[in-house]
Amino acid sequence: MSWLRKFIFRLEPFLRRKRIEGELSEELQAHLEMATEANIAAGMTPAAARSAAQRELGGIEQVKESYRDERGLPWLEHLLQDLRFAARWLRKSPAFTTVAVISLAIGIGLNAAVFSIINTIFYQSIRGVPEPHRVVFFNDLGVSRDGAERLREEATAVAAITAARGTPATVAVEAFEHRDNVALVAANYFDIFGPKPALGRLFSAAERAQRGEVQPVAVLNHAFWETQLGGDPTMIGRVARINGVGFTIIGVAAPEFHGPGPAGPPLWVPVDFAPLVERRKTGDRAERFALFGRLRPGISLAQAQATIDVVIARSPLVFGEKARVRLSLGREDWRGEIPAEKRVEGILVTTVPLLVVGGLLWIACSNVGNLLLARAVQRQKEIAIRVAGGATRGRLVRMLMAESLLLAGLGGVAGLWVSHAVIRFVFATLSNFALFSVQLDTRVLLYTTGVCFLAALLFGLVPALQASKVDVNATLKGESANPLFRGSRLRAFFLASQIASSVALLVVAGTFVKSLVMTAHVGAAARQMDHLLLAQIAGGERVGLEREAFYREVVERIRSLPGVETAALFEADNTRGRFSRPGDTAIESAPPVEIELQRIDNAFFGVVEIALQRGTAFSSFAPAGAPHEAIVNEAMARKFWSVDTTIGQRFQVGQQSYIAVGIVNDRGAQPKVYAPLASAAAERVGLFVRTRGAARDMTVAVSAALRSLAPGANAPTAIPYREVAFRTLSELTRLAVFVGALALALAAAGIYASAAFSASQRTREIGVRMALGATRFSVLKLVLRSGLGVVGWGSGVGLVFALIGVRLLFGLMTGQSGIDPVAIAAVMLFFSLIATLACALPAYRATRVDAMVALRCD
Amino acid sequence: MTKEKSELLQGTLDMLILKALQRDAMHGFGLSVRLREMSKEVFQVEMGSLYPALCRLEAKAWIKGAWGISDANRKARYYSLTAAGRKQLQEETVRWEMLSSTINAMLKAT
Asked: Which residues make Cβ contacts (< 8 Å) with residue B39, sequence separation at least 6?
């Protein structure tokens, strides 16, 4: 325990500094006076007595100094002192501090943002529930309704199990209307997860059995309620229309709860009401439930896994022969059987953004490092004085690192704010993820702190080591060592690395832009899109024949507009259904083959200019009970039959039988079925319009016509198809351009600052040259040569990295090499221009200084 | 005193302070006078060595410090031995005697 006592003993003065120091001063003062008195008593004069006493006993300050080493926590006190001094120093140079903190905030903030997003998607445990570590996830397994029931009953000893699945639906609440995935969940869903309702109540199994509720109910997601409905407390009891059917809102879930995944559905509905929501779709799609549960008390994960494996193996008819499940606690386990294409996608999605923001961070750090190096040269005198006053090299480095830490800390705090803004912006523009809640959790904070430390080391250590190497004598005497060589190699390295990173980012961005331009604007397919308009029309409250008539009226009116060549309708949502052929053994044994089915009218292929290869179009008369006609694409014909034998084949998608009457070549790689549009049943239809002239010109006319037919707040508008088709690619490109521009701006700022600094150091030299008769131009050439040398090196290295990066990136994404000499040459040219400007400007300003002034100034 | 010497004497100084405080409590000045007397003017202890030593001893709870009034009516901090301090003094005295006699014997030998 003595070490504890010693520690407390040392801690006390740290906390009660003033009092302890005061006491010590008193004690020493008393001692001195007593010694003086003794001397006087011995016969000295008061003055002599006092000085004799002082000489004998040593100075008070020195005593205090050695005393302090025994008490107090010297390292902590030094650190605080350094930080205090660093703060003062930063405050004295606001321009430098602002630039540095902004650069760091951008670099650190972007890193934090990307990490937060990845963290949420891959590592987030379920939130908003009690004992989240007992919640078990069933990975890699989708079951039918029977399967879910079977598992729930037979595994009840080890876990309480619930099931959920999502279905696309239009959700309309008050003025808000949105298309999203609605969650259909078992009655015991909330019982098992256990979140508390923030408002109203949640449905439970017991309640539903007891009340025998017939009225459809729904529970709102808290984030959805807050952002889209304004957090209106009167929402309880109001009606939400899901695919047109009214559901009473009975409650809002707890703020953090949004179900097991990272993105939450806007609302939860008991699965008993699924037929209401999926009116037209029952049987068309393979119902696949995801399972979740809670481990019973005392049961371990291994026990549960074993029991459930047995249950599944026992019933291959229900679960499928090759069904396997992996249980995980607290969150979904993303490892495991990920098919090959998805794995590549997964790597891309995580590593590429990290690399990019890492590059930006590096650029930012290089910027700050360069600035620090430049300032260090200016602080030579101050550092020399410190060394003369007794500071060791280690102490100096610690002091300078404290400054870097403070800068990094400020940058980190500002960076968190930046990351918050970036995340909000990203999710505002990607409407699919409106309900993602990315929250700041401890992992993100730790990561950000780590990044701050790393950044401080990166940009701070080397300048600190450099600055502490000082020739005390020479500096104090006023002779500065040749400023050109003072740390210039280091600065050149920082600058070159900065340039390399930004060139790399710029080249990648440029390649993206070029690829977008090529795909979207050049070539036959692209030109075709110039004539296509797309609109979406909702059936609204009309039903049956009235709806059919409405759609027909719309398409005929549009067709009659001048400038419109033709128009076609198709069902707005494609369905996916399980494919089967008559004669297939009717067990869900193999993993179900799902194919896409799109409902279209006869004019569709004409509008999108896809030719019917074989067979005929749909006949307008379909006898009841006969299998529906369907046209398949070439990929499907080749996959299941052969191109020659497809016509006349029967097959089923989900519960509906079809007979193939034609084959089209839609250039798609995946099998797809086109079926006739049953417009009476279609909630929403899409309208394709082929225009004679440019589609853009017809947008207004078509939109006006649509509005007149379907007035109201949600009137449909027509959009040029190109905008829709390339939305993702163009958003990516926009992002790439933004990143590239940021990289360029940071690099240009860095080059400018460095060039300005060099120029200022060389003012005297330039003055001499000009006084001796050099022309402005030759001086400019001289300064530029040294500056551009560094730029050249940096660009070269950056180009190499860029080529590797582009090769990898594009190779993984599209299978092409992606190395486009035109794009690269354009980017390099652009960059060289900017770099030259950034170098030349300070040089030019240096030449404008009066030679006499330059010679005289220091 | 050079650094080297003072380190050697640090432990010894602590021991001597304990000895000086054996009879009665004293303040810093009195202690330095006492040490001078006891060593017959050989050891003139500077404040810079004395007070850190007092701090060390206080940290180890071998002495205890308390504010009091000196005979000249001045406020001063008095240090006194604790029980643990007395025991320590005894142990160190024994150890020192053994050490010094060994060294003496070694030096006397040829």
From this structure: B16
Q: For B29, name the nearest residue in chain A, comparing CA atoms only.
A: A31
pLDDT of residue A428: 64
d(C-alpha A317, C-alpha A315), whole Å: 5
Q: Which of A523-532 are b and which e, b meaning 16 or more Cβ less than 10 Å from the residue's Cβ?
A: eeebeebebb
Minimum distance, in Å, between the CA of residue A124 and any CA atom of chain B: 50
User: Contact A839/A775 with Cβ under 8 angstroms?
Assistant: no
Chain A window 44-73: which residues touch B at a Cβ cutoff of 8 Å?
A: 56-58, 60, 62-63, 66-67, 69-71
Which residues of chain B neighbour A23 with C-beta distances below 8 Å? 77
* Chain segment A352-378, per-residue pLDDT in tens: 788 888 888 888 888 888 888 878 777
Which pLDDT score is estimated for B83?
Answer: 92
Between A727 and B37, the more confident residue is: B37
- Site of tokens 């607290």: A330
- Are A754 and A843 spatial neighbours (Cβ–Cβ below 8 Å)? no
Check if the beta carbon of residue A299 is closer than 8 Å to that of residue A159: yes
> For chain A, first and last CA: distance in Å?
61
Mean of pLDDT values over A785-810? 82
- Could you tell me if B104 lies within 8 Å of chain A, comparing CB atoms? no
Helix pair A17-41, A2-15: axis angle to 10 deg: 90
Contact criterion met (CB < 8 Å) for B72 and A34: yes
The residues, any chain, with a CB within 8 Å of residue A24's CB and separated by 6 or more, are A64, A67, B51
Beta bridge partners of A659: A629, A650
Residue A526 and residue A523: Cα distance in Å, rounded?
5
Burial class (CB in 10 A: 0-12, 13-18, 19+), B40: exposed
Work out the number of other CB atoms within 10 angstroms of the CB of residue A638.
Answer: 14
Distances (CA, A) of A175 to A127, A171, A221, A437, A712: 30, 11, 17, 23, 12
SS3 category, A358:
helix
pLDDT at A223: 77
DSSP string, A649-699: -EEEETTEEEEEEEEE----SS-EEEEE--GGG-SEEEEEEEESS-HHHHH
Q: Which of A770, A794, A792, A767 is nearest to A857 (CA)?
A: A767
Residue pair B48/A63 in contact by the 8 Å Cβ criterion? yes
Residues in chain A: 858
Q: Which residues of chain B neighbour A35 with C-beta distances below 8 Å?
A: 29, 32
Higher pLDDT, B28 or A765: B28
C-beta atoms surrounding A113 within 10 Å: 26
Chain A contacts of B44, Cβ < 8 Å?
A: 56
In A19-38, the residues whose Cβ lies within 8 Å of chain B are: 23-24, 26-28, 30-31, 33-35, 37-38
Contact B48 A34 (CB under 8 A): no
The neighbouring-strand residues paired with A43 are none
pLDDT tens for residues B18-64? Answer: 999 998 888 888 888 888 888 888 877 777 788 888 888 888 889 99
B76/A6 touch (CB, cutoff 8 Å), yes or no = no
Per-residue pLDDT of A527-568, as tens digits, reads 677 788 888 887 666 777 888 888 888 888 888 888 888 888
On whether any CB of chain A is under 8 Å from the CB of B76, the answer is yes
